[in-house]
Design brief:
mainly alpha, two-stranded antiparallel ribbon, 2 strands
Amino acid sequence: MGGMLALGFAGFLGLLKILLMALAAFGLFDAAFRREDAFRAADKQNKVFWLIMLGLALAVSYLFSIFAMLPIAGAVASIVYIVDVRPAVKQASGGGSGWGRRGGGSSSDGPYGPYNGGR
C-alpha cells in the first residue's frame, strides 16, 4: 500500500515538473516573438531580461527537484510574465498576438474603417 502511494506521489510530482517546464517554455517562446519596443512601451523590463529569466526558469525546472527553491522562483517568474507582462506587451504592440496573425476585421479594412472602393 505504501509503495503504491509513493509511486502515485512521484507521478504527481513528475506531472507538476512537466507543467512548470511547459509554463516556462511557453513564456520563453512568447517573449522571443514579441517586439523589443513593446516591452519599453508597456513600461516593463526589457526583452533580454525576460528571455534570460524565462530561460533560467526553464533550465532550473528541468535540472532541479520540485522541492528546491529555484524551480519555485522560476515558476513565479513564469507566472508573472504570463499574467502581467504578456498582456501589457500585447496591448502595447497593438493588441495582436505578435506572431503575424491579424486581429478581427476584413482584409479590405483601412486605418479608418472598411474600404469601399470609391463608391
